[in-house]
Specification:
- It comes from Nocardia tenerifensis.
- Keywords: Membrane, Transmembrane, Transmembrane helix.
- The protein has 466 residues and is mainly alpha-helical.
- 68% of the residues lie in helices and 3% in strands.
- It has a domain of 107 residues.
- It has 21 helices and 2 strands.
- The longest helix has 36 residues.
- The radius of gyration is 26 Å and the shape is globular.
- It starts with a helix and ends in a 5-residue tail after the last strand.
Length: 466
């Protein structure tokens, strides 16, 4: 089949996914539609740009892939998308089946912790702690960027995660007394996440914030105005990503980027920065050239996935890093990576194909779908650490561009963040308990004091007016 046919089949599978998602009640609908949009940028928009422009590969521009150009874009894209077409239709089948089941099993009306008076104050405290971690990372120059293998300061990076998790939690769960205050709080949180997106050169924070707004509306109820608002935020975030990136670039880097962009039509220029970040087509190309097998056995995959949930300090050994291993072993099979050290997003379908061929694609698609259902249930949990895990997944890329190994690595990191968040919640609850106790009178007078007069008991009552 031609590349256009493969892309059309992918677009049809994603449209099926999106339509089925509209029939799914609750917050799961939000992530399913977001997945369809995310994967369309990688597997539809980027191939269409390559087929239209036919750009020549050169240094500094990762949109054209030399391996695809060597085959010819039409033939090359058709070859590398076979397993993606199969996997997306399998995933769409899962969603359709779940939509038919879920219509008869609606979720709870409101998440359990919305009735907890300590919940939002705990999220606010987490956000303050996380902001301190972000500020310390900026001051110490230990800010990482997309694709970095190791963080310059793992502790500061870990603390900074709390700000992202808490920002998403506040966007979803904060309920101020007035609409104006609501707009101010959520607007401030959005600006903060947009700024952090530019600082760390990653699309994840702003996408997570947009997701949080959509989840908020899914809980409170959708209206046409809310749907349009979420769409506008998403478009502005994606379209403005290149402008935010340019704020940190030197004149030389800007000139180099302008030279790379000059080979594309002007209508594409605003979206080139974000298309370069949606690189799952490159991962699909990696998987095709590597072919199934010769990377990890099922036993090794299970062992590495399980070890990812254990802190390195307790494990006593360095953890397996799937993004780094993918760059070295899978992409390294067709691209010279000897002088490059980077961590890559592999994608669930691509990882599944390399690990086990088409059966592996089915397993990884099922894992991502089950993880999404677990996320949706976690937000409604009455246990604070479980809700934190759900919030962390809201702002992570696990459900979009990671496979089993990468998702388990994220979960291991988020489990540690959930423990720290739980400790903060204990401090906040104790502080609020003591504050409330000090504000209350220490000894209350009895409501009624009996007075004995002879053999007759007369009850003396306090006046309700004091």
């Amino acid at each position: 089949m031609s590349a256009a046919t493969e892309v059309a089949l992918i677009a049809l599978a994603l449209a099926t996914l999106a339509v089925a998602a509209t029939r799914v009640p609750g917050v799961a609908r939000v992530f399913l539609i977001a997945q369809a949009a995310f994967w369309s940028l990688s597997y539809v928009a980027r191939p269409l740009v390559l087929l239209w422009v036919q750009p020549d590969p050169h240094f500094g521009d990762n949109v054209p892939d030399p391996r695809l150009a060597q085959f010819g874009y039409d033939r090359g894209i058709a070859l590398v998308l076979h397993h993606v077409v199969f996997g997306l239709w399998v995933y769409a089948g899962f969603v359709v089946a779940y939509a038919l089941w879920a219509r008869r099993h609606p979720p709870r009306e409101l998440p359990a912790l919305t009735r907890d008076p300590d919940f939002v104050p705990t999220l606010a405290a987490m956000y303050c702690v996380g902001l301190l971690g972000r500020a310390a990372s900026i001051a110490s120059g230990s800010i990482g960027s997309a694709g970095d293998v190791d963080s310059a300061s793992p502790i500061l990076s870990f603390v900074a995660i709390l700000a992202t998790i808490a920002a998403l939690g506040l966007i979803i769960f904060v309920r101020p007394a007035t609409p104006r205050l609501t707009v101010l709080i959520i607007g401030g949180l959005l600006v903060g996440e947009l700024a952090w997106t530019a600082i760390v050169e990653s699309k994840t924070p702003i996408i997570g914030a947009a997701m949080a707004i959509a989840v908020r509306f899914a809980i409170l109820g959708w209206t046409r105005a809310k749907a349009i608002g979420v769409g506008v935020i998403a478009v502005l975030g994606i379209g403005g990503f290149g402008w935010l990136q340019s704020l940190k670039q030197t004149k030389y880097v800007k000139a180099e980027a302008s030279l790379a962009d000059s080979s594309y039509p002007p209508i594409v220029h605003p979206f080139l920065s974000i298309l370069r970040r949606f690189d799952l087509l490159e991962a699909a190309t990696d998987a095709y050239f590597h072919q199934p097998g010769l990377w990890l056995t099922p036993a090794e995959t299970l062992r590495h996935a399980s070890a990812s949930l254990v802190p390195s300090q307790l494990l006593g050994a360095a953890k397996f890093q799937s993004g780094t291993a993918w760059a070295q072993d899978v992409r390294g099979a067709s691209v010279d990576m000897t002088k490059v050290s980077v961590s890559l997003a592999e994608g669930n379908l691509n990882e599944g194909y390399v690990l086990g061929g088409y059966p592996g694609v089915i397993v990884c698609a099922a894992f991502t779908f089950l993880l999404l259902l677990a996320w949706a249930k976690a937000l409604y949990s009455r246990f604070f650490p479980v809700v934190v895990l759900g919030l962390a997944l809201t702002g992570a890329s696990a459900l979009f561009e990671r496979g089993i190994l990468g998702s388990m690595e994220n979960l291991g990191k988020f489990l540690q963040a959930a423990v720290l968040a739980w400790l903060i919640s204990l401090v906040v609850r104790e502080y609020r308990r003591r504050t409330t106790a000090e504000a209350s009178p220490a000894v209350r007078a009895p409501a009624a004091a009996p007075v004995f007069v002879g053999a007759v008991t007369i009850e003396k009552r306090e006046s309700p007016w004091g």
